[in-house]
Amino acid sequence: MQRLEAQLGEPLFEREHHQVSLTPAGDAFRRHATAVLEEWAGFEEARSLSEGALSGTVHVYCTVTAAQSVVPDLFGRVRRAHPGIRIELATGYAADAMDQLRGGTIDVSVAALPDRLPAGIVSRVLTTTPVVFVGPKTEGPVHDATSRRSVDWPTVPLVLPAHGLARDYVDQWLDRRSITPAIYAEIQGHEAILSLVALGCGVGVVPRLVLEKSALRDRIVEIPVRPALRRFRIALCVRDRALSNPLIAAVWEA
Length: 254
What we know:
The chain is an alpha/beta fold. It is built from 10 helices and 11 strands. The relative contact order is 0.17.
């Protein structure tokens, strides 16, 4: 990177003690590099298409739950139709999916759809899942509080996502009821929320699909509420300009 900066005559990164970020020149160079790589990938895929078969790599980002539930069916169809396509799969936090896609580091994300998609992103809904409150099955203060007919929400400790759609949905649900929550923890990752719930630390909020796929599902119980929290729409998301790439188009059509 330092040799590249010396060649360009400008710093590409702001280097601080604990973090590194792009300068305006670095961001411009990132966009240029991404465009060049996309054009090269398009050239390679067009060449493979002219030879009668698609081949190349599709970089996919999703959560661990999506990797275990949605991805095998979707990309199984892709692989059966186009055996030459290689799938590079990265997993991470749901809240980071759109940023990964917009940044150009991945080609495809399988993610929960926000109310408004970022500019330049298109989607196809694959499935839906409710967002639900969950509590521990084991006896203890949290279990006892949630086993009553009416939960005293202002006093029950909550384990909430630090940010993202699920956090938005539960915040809206609490705001409409003028509830100031007693927050036990705000953490990244729905799987981590289930771990703390199973330990009896509090009531969590997760997509039901995460609960159903979790190894902890036998230690956790769903807490019904009226009205229910909003549902997640799980969708295939790509950059609209990437649909001209035959590989991405093949995934899109699957």
